[in-house]
Amino acid sequence: MRYAPHSPEEVKEMLRAIGLERLEQLFDDIPTEALLKRHLNVEGGWDEERIRAYFRKAAAAMPDANKAVYFLGGGIYDHYVPALVDKVLSLPEFYTAYTPYQAEVSQGTLVAMFEYQSLICELTGMEVTNASMYDGASAAAEAALMAMRIKGIKRIAVSKAVHPDIFEVLHAYQVGQDFEIVEIPVLNGLTHAGALDELPPVAGLLVQSPNYYGFIENMPAFGSAIHEKGGLFIAAVDPLSLGVLKSPKEYQADIVVGEGQSLGNHMNFGGPHFGFLATKMEFVRDMPGRMIGETNDVDGRVGYVMTLQTREQHIRREKATSNICSNHWLMALASVVYLGLMGGSFKELGESILTRSTYLAEQLAKVGYPLRYRNYFFKEFPVHVPNATEVQSALAEAGYFVGPVIDENTLLVAVTEKRTREEIDGLVGLMEGLR
Amino acid sequence: MRRLPPLLKELHKPGRKGLAVPRGGFEVRPAAELLPTDLLRHEPLSLPEVPEVEVVRHFVNLSNLNYGVDTGFYPLGSCTMKYNPKINEEVSAWFSDLHPYLPAKYVQPLLELLYTLQQDLLEVTGMDAITLEPAAGAHGELTAMLMAKAYLKDKGLHHKDIVIVPDSAHGTNPASAAMAGFQVITVQSNEEGLVDIDKLKAVLNDRVAVLMLTNPNTLGKFERDIMEMAKMVHDLGGLLYYDGANLNGILGWVRPGDMGFDFVHLNLHKTFSTPHGGGGPGSGPVAVKKELEPYLPKPVIVKDGETYKLETDRPKSIGKVRSFYGNILVALKALAYIKALGGAGLREAGALAVLNANYMRVKTEEFLPTAYPGLCKHEYVATAEGLKRQFGVRTLDIAKRLLDKGFHAPTVYFPLIVHEALMIEPTETETKENLDAFVEALREIVEEAQTNAELVKSAPHVTPVRRLDDTKATKQLKVRW
Ligand SMILES: Cc1ncc(COP(=O)(O)O)c(C=O)c1O
After folding, report:
1. How many CB atoms lie within 10 A of CB A220?
2. Which end of chain A offers a freer environment for a tag, N or C, measured as fewer CB atoms within 10 Å?
3. Ligand 1 pocket test target in B78, B165, B322 with most atoms within 8 Å of CB
4. Model ipTM over 0.90
């Protein structure tokens, strides 16, 4: 068999050591009525070349970002991934290791995790974070649960302008736990601040900025409003925007979550990426997930370990702050490599995105596709496009992928630092031709 | 004192640049020209500015402090640290530049691959429908428990609010059940390390919603009375859940569906050879019997004639447990593995995993008792209780001394029901020489414990750092620079 190393002689010898004759006897403890009396009906037994051909054929038939031009957004973006990121993620000692249970032979992972935590705290202005979550949507849902734990109130307010998947995840959690979601409506592309006036007591308020439409919310106003009512402010942010946009600390966020894909991860058809969850030190014991701390060894040398584990499932079981065990560390490692390379250019990077998105929005307006609402945006924005689905299809046929479609008159357009002037002008030209 | 490489922050010098921002024919305009100043960041941002070659060296040097499957034998019980085939890494990377919101028409070949994986996993588990959405094992458990809740609500069985887990269960089981709003009741194992049927009977009643089982359990023991347990739970209108993290021990020999389980999660990052990445990303698909299909998270990948669809119109679905569709690249690695092995190969992998575990068990029993002797499946649990009592050498000491001898340690102090537990899972991809070498290392340590206990108790001696102070880490919490 592939990947199994024994010679037939060795198998016999090992069976003999156990006191058995045939491999089948290893399953004598299983009731016969449950045993499978045939081979699994699974096609395979292929050599490497056949496996390559099989996957290559599928990959070659699809318009990935190396063949087509992407203006797709809605949470995942065609961002620049430096060559070194993939190289580091392919270092076998990183990617073939398990969770760093044996700290003394896992300092590579642990040091990088400590760096990751430091960088996320630096970006968000928070005091503490864990060593990653699965993704932005599940991190947001965990933050909501965390706020309800802290406040002891089973009600949470959530802006309708957050990514729709966040709502879907919260709804799934609601199947299990008894809590109420107060939806804060959207007005002209932004969370409707006025709706907070009648808010019943809530554990917290979740607002995303830039929101699902790409618009920058008035976060300081939401921060003060919810604090006045005694709730926690949960901000969902795009970490790549934080070289330019106000940091969550500046608008008094209590918990900060986000999707980390923009920091050095490929799109991966939506996964895997990583989520982050950061907060203030006072809430550290209510945080889900693994956390790394600095300490020293018996000789006084600096070293790193997993810490505050008494919050976690392997110790607290049904009383843990979360059930999370494996996280999305390798994808978070991409962000550490990325920030190590881009640290000196991080603000410029944000500005280069802003420069492009502003330019594209202006050009589209000139050819008859105005912004759906006149708000400030960072890297994506909704434009008024009659028959948005048809336009999207026509552009796709020309090798330009734009979207998602928000409604029949609204198309979301995203621009990253990867898009060239030529590509942007190309999109404008195509859309002008479709009028 | 620091022997570790300097942190990125210490490599920083202001004004340095690593990589350039792509120009793309644009002159970058300052943010202050484009946005009102009250939207802009005023708090200083201090990120490391490091030249590329120093970043390369930083991570290469860090990786050298690590131990992975590619470094050596990694018998970490319950984690199935089998070889991660390189072809899987290569072919999955070809799908990394696809956006999840590409119209389905353009990603048919990818959806076909995912559908094929789904069909193969259904055959492996003996189930009827599946989702690839959950991101990890624990996430699969949570998904499944939420589905159970939705199913019970739908059937009007609101009084069913209890989930039973054995005391040998992984911590994620009770934690996931609690997160899904169930009350958790723990049932004790018997002297053979199996669920005690009488104790189970005693806690079974009409309020029981789900019995969560790992089979083979975390002691590596097959729950012999599984069919009877299934009947007992089903007779009460309850559901039987399979924690498939330990599927490697029965792969191709017995299927959860045929044992009477109603739903199951798999850890693709265990049985199906995808790497653990130092703690993820994994993938925890959930497969279910027909009656639970309506509650699967959205979207479900279905085949409609010759077309593959991401179906979202599912009124009874629990919703989503994460964004988009799952850890797609991880799923593709698992598919490449399945295609390398095929049905016969998977069955052989299962058999050889069990062969390796039993071979090691018999060998280590010569000097270290197994907590629950007799035939095991993919893993077994040894106990150092005697060594602790006689020589003051604990399991933790043995684990650390193994690091000195060039091995990764087994899982320690789990399951909780075994004192001084060492949970050993060799997997099928290890050579006999590796198994023998590990056994000899363990034998030496047991001898050292008797002749020079201090040497073991003060281990490790030759690792990049020595035993670390966990208490200090908690008491003087420092979680960022
Ligand atoms: C038996 C068992 N169940 C569940 C899990 C949880 O899996 P994950 O870490 O992928 O969430 C594990 C792995 O740690 C396990 O061994």
Report:
1. 15
2. C
3. B78
4. yes
